[in-house]
Amino acid sequence: MKQWLEKIRSFEWKDPMVIILVCLLVFLVTGTSIKGCLQMTAERKTVCIDGAFGGSFKGYEGIVNEAEVTGKLVDELAALLEKDRDFIVIRTDRSKTVSERVEMIRNTDASLVLSIHADGSLDPSASGMRNSVMKTGDVHRDDSIRFAQCIADAFSGSLDVHNGTMLYKWLEGGVVSRKDTDLTDTTVYTYDTWSIMDCEKVTVVSDLCYVTCQKDVDTWCHEEGYRKAAGLYYRAIRNYYGLQ
Hints:
43% of the residues lie in helices and 20% in strands.
């Protein structure tokens, strides 16, 4: 090191050729670094994480409420993604309406949207995970199915997982008719689906568990459970993009 410093001091810095060569070297080094940074930024995947409900809206209320579950889980997952240089993370504002969130997502570069929910039932034995994909006819349906399968694979062995499509229609008198289909059903129904899927991005709505089931709550709805679930969702996202 000392020898190199002595060589540098020995240069004739007033010599125009030396100055030109040094400037060229600096340009090449910094140019390469900038190019590398730009390339790395271009290759990063932009993922939007949406937590259902928030503020005064609690969602399903059971042993715990849905808003509490989604808020804590989204915090854990976003923290994991933000530490990963492969990703740029966008979070929706949980105080906004779904329509406002949809508009926000549309105006981003997100290539994937994960909307995290929890489920509820009058039957306390109902349990497990439900992943809802985009309905038949949507341009992003195939990729939505692929992402849902990545989630199912990640959670395999941890709980029962059902992948399908949630459809609904408003009937007279304000009654809602709900229809749940599996992935083999390719019928084009005149039903609506989750409003968040209007964002025009690859989207999956994932109900982690039932807040009305003691077994599910004991497994997932606490600090350790949220951390574990976040790690599995994180694995699913990386697998979706083919990242090991």
